[in-house]
Amino acid sequence: MKSTSLQPEQLSSVSAVATDGPNPRADRIGRGLMALNAVLTLGAFADGVRIMVSAADDRVVVEIWRTFAYVVFAGMWALIAAWPRRVPGVWELVLFQKFAITVYYFALGDVPHAQTAALVDLWLVSTTALAYALCRGWYSWRTVTSSPGSSGQPARTAG
């Protein structure tokens, strides 16, 4: 059996690669938060179905749209939980929408349900931002290459 040994200059590049990714514990916590958000959002979907089926005619279209949007967000959080560094743009889309809607809800003041919705979305934007940092979600942009000869296909990396 042939033994190979790394030269000193190779060792420094190996250690740089090994420490470049997120801490495994931080990664598990971030992924867990995103999985929790996905499950909680499916709970909101179930409640949305209840509201949707009893909605007045002037509210039914809005309730249908809102209810099925829960499935989209649950799916995005599930994708992030499964592949936090392979879904370029998904983190940022979720963070943008949740941040914007949270600010808007707080700005509404005494409008019915605005403060409750603001607190729910504050949880979602906070946990997503924390998970983004823990999982190093910005690394997902490293998986997309536009180099000549890449046939336009994204290059995939671990995570």
Task: Sum up the structure in keywords.
single chain; 159 residues; mainly alpha; 5 helices
Structure overview:
The chain is an all-alpha fold. The protein is elongated, with a radius of gyration of 21 Å. About 5% of the residues have low confidence.
Please summarize what this structure is.
With 159 residues, the chain is mainly alpha-helical. It is built from five helices and no strands.
Which helices and strands occur, and which strands form pairs?
Elements: H1 8-20, H2 24-53, H3 60-82, H4 90-108, H5 114-135
Helix pairs in contact: 2-3, 2-5, 4-5
How would you describe the oligomerization state of the chains in this entry? single chain
Distance between the termini: 32 Å
Estimated radius of gyration: 21 Å
Determine the structural class based on helices, strands and strand pairing.
Answer: mainly alpha
The total of beta strands comes to: 0
**Number of helical elements:** 5
Strand content: under 5%
Fraction of helical residues: 55-70%
**Which consecutive residue ranges, at least 5 long each, have pLDDT under 50?**
11-18
Main β-sheet description = none
How would you describe the shape?
A: elongated
- The residue-averaged pLDDT reads 86
Succession of helices and strands: HHHHH
